[in-house]
From TrEMBL:
Superkingdom of this protein's organism: Bacteria
Family annotation (InterPro entries): Nudix_hydrolase, NUDIX_hydrolase-like_dom_sf, NUDIX_hydrolase_CS, NUDIX_hydrolase_dom
UniProt record similarity statement: Belongs to the Nudix hydrolase family.
Keyword Hydrolase: yes
Protein name in UniProt: ADP-ribose pyrophosphatase YjhB (NUDIX family)
Pfam families, alphabetized: NUDIX (PF00293)
Names of the cofactor(s): Mg(2+)
Length: 298
């Protein structure tokens, strides 16, 4: 079975009357004639924020600014050549700041239009677009997929990860120490990690939280989206990765905390886990993701 992964960013843009901006897939796209939110693939090393602004300019002719992160999704689709594709999608809310509505020329879309709320369901929509806009659609039937599918690495590594800014009722913060030999080795990080093929960000976060810290938590919000591009990063095998990780950080509550302990197999990327007060955390060598998340939430 041929499989592939991609990460993409999209925007929900509405006019004063509630119409939503949609683009139609061209003959060069995987699904010609099907409508989608404007957006597309995140280039290697590109911040997802920059992706959605770039894609809007290319597909709609409009300049936009981001007003918030609406949701983060993952889905599987069977492409016309039989490949099963896993796409991680960051969906933003955006507002128009300038430009003139213009369809893309010689790209994967060929038409752009403001669509009234009452008319959205009448158009053929990509499933993720239908879901974001509240349109009911039948789930795709991909048949039985083997467990443990992993796309073959053929170039630079782009990874999609979900992380937890996790706290307990006492206000302590849950942190993990990255094992030596991994990017950021020795620094204290937010629990979490890469999503597996076919896995949702929420599912990956629950799995990683238990593997790295032995805790069970509940997602209460979305802190934000970031990325890290490190062309010089070297993995534990000593092989350069040209590392690009796209990261979604969730606010998580652990209502019944236990002693933090790593439960994943020896040799993994997590060396240690601990509950810390804010004062203790300030005195630790933190990753920039951890510092940024703590700064965003005060």
């Amino acid at each position: 079975m041929k499989i592939k992964r991609r990460a993409a960013a999209y925007g929900v843009c509405r006019s004063a009357d509630g119409s939503v901006l949609l683009t139609r897939g061209s003959d060069a796209s995987a699904f010609p004639g099907v409508w989608s939110l404007p957006g597309g693939g995140i280039d290697h090393g590109e911040h997802p924020d920059d992706t959605v602004v770039r894609e809007f300019a290319e597909e709609t002719g409009l300049a936009v600014r981001i007003t918030g992160v609406r949701t983060v999704l993952a889905d599987l689709a069977r492409l016309p050549d039989g490949t099963v594709e896993h796409t991680d999608r960051i969906v933003y809310d955006v507002a128009v700041t300038g430009g003139e509505l213009t369809p893309e020329a010689d790209g994967t879309t060929d038409l752009v239009a403001w669509v009234a709320p009452a008319d959205v369901a009448a158009r053929p929509l990509l499933p993720f677009t239908a879901g974001v806009l509240g349109v009911t659609f039948p789930p795709a039937d991909l048949g039985e997929l083997p467990a443990g599918l992993t796309p073959e690495r053929t170039g630079p590594v782009q990874r999609f990860g979900a992380y937890a800014l996790a706290t307990d009722p006492a206000g302590r913060i849950l942190l993990t120490r990255i094992a030596d030999g991994y990017p950021g080795g020795g620094r204290w990080h937010l629990p979490g990690g890469g999503t597996d093929f076919g896995e949702t960000p929420e599912g990956a976060l629950a799995r990683e939280l238990h593997e790295e810290t032995s805790q069970r938590g509940r997602i209460t919000g979305l802190v934000g989206v970031s990325h890290r591009y490190d062309p010089a990063a070297v993995g534990p095998e000593g092989v350069p990765l040209e590392w690009h990780v796209i990261r979604v950080v969730y606010q998580v509550t652990v209502p019944e905390p236990t002693v933090a302990a790593v439960t994943e197999a020896a040799g993994g990327s997590t060396a240690e886990a601990a509950w810390c007060t804010l004062e203790q955390a300030r005195n630790l060598p933190l990753t920039e993701l951890t510092r940024d998340a703590l700064g965003r939430t005060g």
